[in-house]
Amino acid sequence: MDVNRQQFLEDGYVILRQVIPPDQLDSLRHSYEIMVDRQRAIWAQEDPPDGVWGRAAQPRLNLTSLADQIDESTASTIEIWLHENTQGASSQLLGVEDAAVTEMMLMCSPVSDHGPARWHRDFAPAHSSPAMGYAEDILDNGPRYVQWNLSLYDDDVLWVVPGSHVRCLTSDENAQLERDAQGPLSSGVQTHLKAGDGVAYILPILHWASNYSTRMRRTIHGGFSMFTHYPNLSYLKQLSPQARETFGRWVKRSDDTMARTEIALRAALEADGAAYQQALQDLHPESCSMAMRQSTILLSKSAKRIQDLKRPASGVSEEELSYATGIHPMTMQWGQPMADRFSVAEAGRLWERFRWVDDRLRGDQEATCPGFQGGPTSYFFNDVPAELTVDNFIAQWS
Fold this sequence. Notes:
By secondary structure, the chain is α+β, with helices and mostly antiparallel strands. It has helices at about 5-10, 20-45, 50-55, 75-80, 85-95, 130-140, 170-180, 240-270, 275-285, 290-310, 320-325, 335-340, 345-360, 390-395; strands at about 15, 60, 100-110, 145-150, 160, 190, 200, 205-210, 220-225, 325-330, 335, 360-365, 375-380. It folds into 2 domains: about 5-120 and about 145-165 and about 190-250, Sandwich (Jelly Rolls); about 255-395, Zinc Finger, Delta Prime, domain 3, CATH 1.20.272. About 40% of the residues lie in helices and about 15% in strands.
């Protein structure tokens, strides 16, 4: 499938037609509906009578958590992510040879709560970075991740603000969101997808799930990156040998990336500036300074999570523990498996090493800002302080 990468980089999104081949659409709908029924049965057992299905504003299936439920009749729900129109197109959009699938989900129409949601970017600065950390990395090196909505039925729920993936919001946009974060923005564009169409977009873009109608909604949702993690691959036995080989290649790369992340953290722990610089280069070959700065910010979050997982449980809030255990390779967060590689003493020293970065990213007072996930925080929402550079970080070690 031909894609317009330049438009994607400039606007932050691109609409692609007939991503699902028309002759596969009905069978794919059928396979996903089988998975919906299986998930609904699990939810009903966990929380009768309907569980999440009956109360969620946007019931979602996550195929990773349903890996053991995938069989020959539903293998196509995985295989669609390996298609040239999805995996191949994503590799083109990211400018890489072999983009790997990350999340594999399905968004469904709600039973009762039909929205709308709130305008948002898909991150909270307290747990990732300021918006311009993402933006300047994208402008310098291209995006690290592409997210997809792939419609099984006609779908016009998603709105986006073109170009917002590489800029702060304007004063007018902020004022509109302050007045009403659940209504159309004058700078917003509604995406109109026919069954089988897809919209691919860059993570920090400001977007909105508008009013859900009562009509059927089944929208495949997920993404691609060079940073991945697969906790359960039991469905591989249902796939072709070529598909199993593809996932095997991605798993090896994931393991290698996690190992490189540990090398970077240990280089900082040992105050070895040259080794730290080399580790960043190994994580991001041929990338420029903004990628190194962004990864340093994300590694500071990783150091904090490792510290939280090594502290006594009484000293960590439930929210902090939830974030610490979460695995999100696109932001270099590896959860408990990474924490297990460090001793309690090492975790404490590692956090002290990265505390300088964390201190640069926050002010004295908590605040809120339109368009971001999470609650009030002292972390900066938009700008990365000029003094936060990799060289200045390393200079603190001597």
